[in-house]
């Protein structure tokens, strides 16, 4: 699918469908409309309505009125939503080439609108042959921007982030029949070559030599080997002396193992159980492509989780990479098993901060749904504050859960150092506390189980894979570089 291309021009082109971004209703008077068109536009943009269209047969004018209520963050999200509404309107006219004329006088607002257009114009159509289903119109392909607020560098940076989100969405939407652990690592290698970051892949023999017991245990039921991918973006003039490490869960498909999931509503979308891994790889791609001056390392343990003959079983005791013994009571709690090895491995980097993303628990999705990310951890308050602010900025909001010591007691085992589940109460938190055991550095756990993959179209986030986490990590790390 062709990504949206945005170029700048000094003045509008005659006869081309145009989107006008208006700061207020008074801006309608500056558009040179006929009296009836102006009256119609003003009536269409009354009350809560923020989008209007004027049809001139050969081309159309689309008017977007800025929502003047609330904070700048709120206004940006309303502009993304307006862009999504426009893309739906474009389908009736098959708009492929448009121009955007800016009257907002705020570059960040224009960027939010363009971001909404680009993210709304996405569809995973790799497997549509056209024999049984026609490839539908998805969205505009070329945008001419007329704005004094943005530079070519601004648009280039936006293009890098959008491309990264598309990479993440594509990976998460891929079925396991194509995307196994090895192919996931190969996808990261291709991204590294394109953006200029280093990628090293450990295959099964190396993983065995390192004694990554959690990753090997989960992989035992699979005929496909596991991988452990290390990605590193280390610019010459990095502002941080110690790296930020990103860890992503790479379960390319989760059956639950011997603790088999019921198929209805639980296994059907489990190709998305590597959304954390996709977000980590794509975020590093965006950081490297846009040359953000921050040293960042990404770690992705990857495998599928299946109930084959030698699959790990409830009651097993697994020795992890750091020597911790874990009593397995549920093989469907596999994400924390592979992440624990990665988090322990991260200690060698003496990191400034580790952020781990995973579609880890149904409890997180039940708690806040698709509307946000559950966060918790041991990092300083300052780090959480910056992360929460970034979440608001990109509308990938983080809700911080408690991380009290009492929750760790729920993971006590009679026969091992830990058990891999803590019971029905506070399931999202006990999963985080399990992972905390394998850290000795400032740590943030982000459970993206709710928003990572959605069954119904959700505004500019689309349907299926959303790419949640890419923009959040990018904005957060870029913000850290400015501190």
Task: Explain the overall architecture.
The protein has helices at 35-44, 72-90, 107-120, 152-173, 181-195, 204-210, 213-219, 275-289, 335-345, 362-368, 381-394, 427-436, 470-482; strands at residues 5-8, 18-22, 51-55, 60-65, 97-102, 142-146, 198-202, 227-233, 244-248, 250-254, 296-305, 317-319, 325-327, 353-358, 373-377, 398-400, 418-419, 443-447, 453-454, 464-465. With 483 residues, it is an alpha/beta fold. The protein has two domains: 5-148, Leucine Aminopeptidase, subunit E, domain 1, CATH 3.40.220.10; 159-482, 3-Layer(aba) Sandwich (Aminopeptidase). The strands form four sheets. Strands 7, 8, 9, 10, 11, 14, 15, 16 and 18 form a nine-stranded mixed beta sheet that branches. It has a six-stranded mixed beta sheet with strand order 1-6-5-2-4-3, sandwiched between helices. The protein has a three-stranded mixed beta sheet with strand order 12-13-17. A hairpin with a 4-residue loop joins strand 3 and strand 4 (60-65). The mean pLDDT is 95.
